[in-house]
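In the design runs reported in the main text, the only information available to the sequence generator was the tokenized backbone. The following block is the verbatim input for one such run; it is reproduced so that readers can re-run the procedure and compare outputs position by position.
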């Protein structure tokens, strides 16, 4: 009986038909996304052999988020989220197909990769806040924490299958196939969106167009201590620690002297395995808090340091499992904490600031970490982000403790 209750609580959001459809579609799509991520990283290293170029490609995918992220959030607050997702998912599929064509016709260049990465960044500018806000429309406010955690599981569940498929396809039929498969995977999301029952959705009230709405959203975040502090931590960790697409390929290639994509794919898959386990734990727990966020962020930094200084590739694979678990628990907890502590009318703008902090800082962090790796070595790049994560989360914990009234429980 207790096992049944635990399972029911862990997967509670899946009781909603619309969310089940979304979950299945996104699981397929995210497998394709991770397949493309592995293939793209390996392609850049084949073309130029430069970790700086790899960092630039990754950075360009998030540059629009950094520069215009608040506009993407405001657009999501003003318009129907489901309709936005129709367009963004279709556009992302077209870009993946175009990359496949460039590779298969031998016209791919590093400049072409830069341009396609930037265009994908424009798509993500609108897709990310709409997708984050759409979760509540599918499940309602009571299940939002559980749904966010399960959403994080599926985002990283693809990391289990995508890299393994990418390694097999790269070795067997060529790297272009990875991009074609990713293009096709977006159809799963579009089909899921079409099959949803509109009557079961719980639309968030849209915001009418008006002056000063961006400034109002930013002021709201700054004046709300929980939101402000979480966003600060997310921005620092996102800038320096979440650069795996830059550091992991170089760790396998330079530090462990591997010449194929398979060892890198296994490293990513190990992190994905941990992420699935960590996401399921957070979904079962369903109690996001600043205190838990600080603790799990510290653990993420510790395991990241272990990966950085792993003596062998096998040890790095093993350490990547708990690192992945803590990374997704950190992401899911930060996401749910922000959503549960923000007003509905501000949700899109708050989540756009979250996206700026977590993803939009990549244009700064990826080239910076790539340059550090190029000048020193991958171990330094990974350990720098891990140590900054630990320091930032300790600050968050101490700040949180000072705000708790004497005698109040720490959640």
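Verbatim output:
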């Amino acid at each position: 009986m207790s096992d049944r209750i635990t399972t029911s609580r862990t997967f509670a959001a899946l009781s909603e038909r619309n969310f089940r459809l979304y979950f299945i579609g996104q699981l397929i799509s995210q497998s394709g996304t991770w397949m493309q991520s592995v293939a793209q990283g390996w392609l850049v290293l084949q073309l130029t052999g430069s970790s700086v170029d790899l960092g630039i490609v990754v950075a360009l995918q998030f540059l629009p988020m950094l520069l215009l992220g608040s506009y993407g959030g405001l657009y999501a607050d003003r318009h129907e989220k489901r309709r936005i997702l129709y367009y963004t998912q279709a556009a992302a599929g077209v870009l993946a197909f175009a990359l496949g064509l460039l590779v298969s016709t031998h016209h791919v260049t590093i400049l072409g990769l830069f341009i396609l990465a930037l265009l994908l960044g424009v798509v993500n500018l609108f897709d990310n806040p709409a997708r984050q806000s759409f979760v509540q429309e599918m499940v309602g406010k009571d299940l939002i924490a559980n749904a966010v955690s399960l959403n994080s599981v599926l985002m990283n569940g693809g990391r289990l299958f995508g890299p393994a498929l990418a390694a097999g396809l790269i070795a067997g039929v060529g790297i272009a196939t990875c991009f074609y498969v990713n293009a096709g995977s977006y159809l799963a999301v579009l089909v899921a969106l079409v099959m949803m029952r509109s009557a079961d959705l719980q639309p968030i009230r849209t915001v009418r167009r008006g002056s000063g709405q961006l400034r109002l959203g930013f002021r709201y975040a700054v004046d709300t201590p929980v939101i402000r502090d979480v966003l600060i931590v997310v921005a620092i960790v996102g800038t320096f620690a979440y650069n795996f697409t830059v550091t992991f390929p170089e760790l396998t290639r330079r530090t462990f002297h591997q010449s194929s994509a398979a060892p890198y794919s296994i490293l990513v898959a190990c992190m994905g395995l941990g992420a699935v386990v960590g996401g399921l734990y957070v979904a079962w727990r369903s109690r996001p808090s600043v205190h838990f966020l600080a603790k799990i962020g510290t653990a993420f930094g510790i395991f990241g340091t272990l990966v950085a200084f792993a003596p062998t590739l096998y040890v790095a694979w093993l350490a990547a499992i708990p690192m992945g678990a803590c990374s997704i628990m950190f992401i899911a907890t930060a996401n749910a904490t922000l959503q549960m502590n923000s007003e509905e009318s501000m949700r899109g703008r708050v989540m756009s600031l979250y996206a700026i902090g977590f993803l939009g800082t990549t244009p700064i962090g990826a080239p910076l970490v790539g340059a550090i790796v190029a000048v020193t070595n991958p171990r330094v790049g990974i350990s720098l982000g891990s140590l900054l994560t630990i320091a930032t989360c300790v600050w968050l914990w101490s700040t949180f403790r000072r705000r708790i009234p004497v005698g109040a429980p720490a959640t």
